[in-house]
Structures are given as structure tokens and as C-alpha cells.
Design brief:
This protein is elongated. A three-stranded antiparallel beta sheet has the order 1-2-3, with no helix packed on it. Strands 4-5 form a two-stranded antiparallel ribbon. The longest helix has 23 residues. Helix 1 crosses helix 2. The protein is α+β, with helices and mostly antiparallel strands. The chain contains three helices and five strands; from the N terminus they run βββαββαα.
Length: 136
């Protein structure tokens, strides 16, 4: 997997992968133009869409309706170092009321790749280089 992020102006940049683009920005009160989500908001969106994908997969495999399903993701900030310290993911499936299927959807959503990545901290390597030193 890979993603290219290109600086545009001030706090705005564009992330690109597999031909798809997302604008990332900051709110007006943080020197942005508010034309896109912030990086932490993208993380919440990533968690929510991942949980939804897995829950919807469970519903599809069990011939249950996924229409109208919503996922709400909240996060609390933590300090030292600055980060998101606690996430809450709430999956709402309006047409499914059987507790066994709700539990099945929950168990399947627990398999979310993004959630599991955050639970078991990955290694992250960061380098900064000049364009002339970049390897093509």
C-alpha cells in the first residue's frame, strides 16, 4: 500500500492513492481554508469506514439489510505526546434487531484492519530529504 501527499497551500494538501484523491486541510481558525478534513478527522473516518465495511460484510453474508447503517467515531485528545488517546466506535444497524446478529456484526467489525493496527502499535520510520537526494 502507498499514498502520495502533495502540498498545495498553507494547511491544504492532497492525498492520492490508486488514482483517488482526498483534500486535507485545517479549519479557518487554524490557518486553513476548511476545504477538507484534518488528518485526525481522516483517522476517525478510516476507523469508521473500516468498522462499517466489516459489519456490512457480516450482514451481507447473512442476507440481512445493511441499508441505513451508520457508524459514529469519537476520540479524546491526550497529551505528552499530543495524540488521540481514546476512541469510541458505535455501529448502528437500524433494521436488524436480533441480538445474535448484532453480536455477530460486532465480532466481525472487531476484525477491522485499521482498529487492529492502532491496537498493536506499528513501527513508523520518518525521514526528511531534499528532492535532489530522493531516489526515483
Amino acid at each position: 500500500m502507498n499514498c502520495k501527499v502533495t502540498y498545495e497551500t498553507d494547511a491544504r494538501c492532497v492525498a492520492e492513492t490508486r488514482g483517488h484523491q482526498i483534500i486535507i486541510d485545517q479549519p479557518l481558525d487554524n490557518r486553513g481554508t476548511d476545504e477538507g478534513m484534518t488528518p485526525p478527522e481522516l483517522l476517525l473516518a478510516s476507523l469508521g469506514t473500516c468498522a462499517m465495511y466489516y459489519a456490512a460484510d457480516y450482514l451481507r453474508r447473512n442476507q440481512l439489510p445493511a441499508k441505513g447503517m451508520e457508524v459514529f467515531v469519537d476520540a479524546d485528545k491526550a497529551t505528552a505526546p499530543a495524540r488521540l488517546g481514546h476512541f469510541t466506535i458505535r455501529v448502528v444497524i437500524p433494521e436488524v434487531t436480533d441480538p445474535a446478529h448484532l453480536e455477530g456484526a460486532r465480532r466481525t467489525a472487531e476484525k477491522c484492519l485499521v482498529k487492529n493496527t492502532l491496537l498493536l502499535a506499528p513501527t513508523i520510520e520518518l525521514t526528511v530529504e531534499t528532492l535532489t537526494a530522493a531516489i526515483p
